[in-house]
Amino acid sequence: MDFRRRDVLEVVAASVVAGAASTLPGCAHGAGADHRLPIAYERGTAMNSRPLMTVRITAAPSQKLGAVPHGIRSIVPVTGGDFEGPRLRGAVLPGGGDWLLVRSDGVLELDLRITLETDDHALIYMTFQGLRHGPPDVIAALGRGEVVDPASYYFRTLPRFETSTETYAFLNRMITVGVGQARPDGAIHEIYEIL
Amino acid sequence: MSSDYEGNGMASRLLMTLQVVVPPPRKLGAVPHGTRVIAAITSGTFEGPRLRGKVLPGGSDWTLLRPDGVLELDLRITLETDDGALIYMTSFGLRHGPPEVLAALARGESVDPSKYYFRTTPRFETSAPQYAFLNRLIAISSGDRRATGPIYTVEEIL
To answer: Candidates 3.40.50.10610, 2.40.160.20, 3.30.110.40, 1.10.287.3510; correct CATH number of B2-157?
Structure first.
């Protein structure tokens, strides 16, 4: 079986438990240490990923709905953007949005729905749920619209796709993870296909 | 934009392995979105560096075979840790592969899990402070379908 997983050393455990930043230098493709699973589970369950695309989303100022039963709700209208990867590229169409909720434990939940249009005119419906959290000073800086090193906070999503186009039907069949960067006018998501 | 690929990268580490016991499932047949099969989960165990315990009875996996041949999984179970905390776990996932491999799985045979795609996205809820980290993480799992039920290797996305 293949152990080219991007596991990192156990030394990072403490910072992750504390909810601190956890994107470490040296964790890029193929740089992780071997991480043998217990013998009983060693059969073919290694996890690999590869870049699917980078989605750059521009957004209008958020609509702040305030305190609702599950937390503090704000809605971010998506005005456009673009995406590019080895197998697809195109534009983010206006009209989608991200329905954000700050939970009572301080974690921001994301719930996005957008439509992508490829350069060969296929439409792709994309959704994700995600989480964003980090140290209070970092979150405050993001709230002020500042650009912050994305390694200083946790911003991960689970994108899903729907399309009827045969060329892009592979999107219907994959599990993906997004690594997010908040920007003053939107966000950038590096999306990885889980192989 | 291609330079963005060289950005953060994505890293993961083992959260736990989870083995669930599934008796013969209930086949509901053709429903509007595909073919529905509901698999009750009667027991199980989980173990990882930071948590271990058992799966309580009462959960299920509501599976749907889509018209494109992809099986969608939609699991809800309750975990109980060895120190008595309750954790609500849900998981959406996808399973697909070559027809002969899926047929062998359907016959209850043991198949090398690298022969098919079986990946899920577990989410957790708990009120126990010692496991609150589960509320804050994104996870991915790799499944290995066995005759008695799947074994999931759950990875935390760092």
So the answer is: 2.40.160.20
Rounded to two decimals, the pTM is: 0.82
Over residues A32-41, the pLDDT tens digits come to 333 333 333 4
Q: Which tops the pLDDT comparison, B10 or B36?
A: B36
The interface predicted TM-score (ipTM) is 0.87
Q: Do A49 and B10 touch (CB under 8 A)?
A: yes
Best to test chain A binding among B65, B118, B157 (most A CBs inside 10 Å): B157
Q: Domains (ranges, CATH) in chain A?
A: 1-47 (no CATH), 49-194 (2.40.160.20)
Q: What is the mean pLDDT of residues B55-72?
A: 96
Most B CBs within 10 Å, among A109, A112, A165, A177, to test the B interface: A177
Kindly write down the DSSP assignment for every residue of A72-109, as one continuous string: EEEEEEEEEEEEE-SS-EEEEPTT-EEEEEE-TTSPEE
Q: Which of A153, A159, A158 is nearest to A182 (CA)?
A: A153
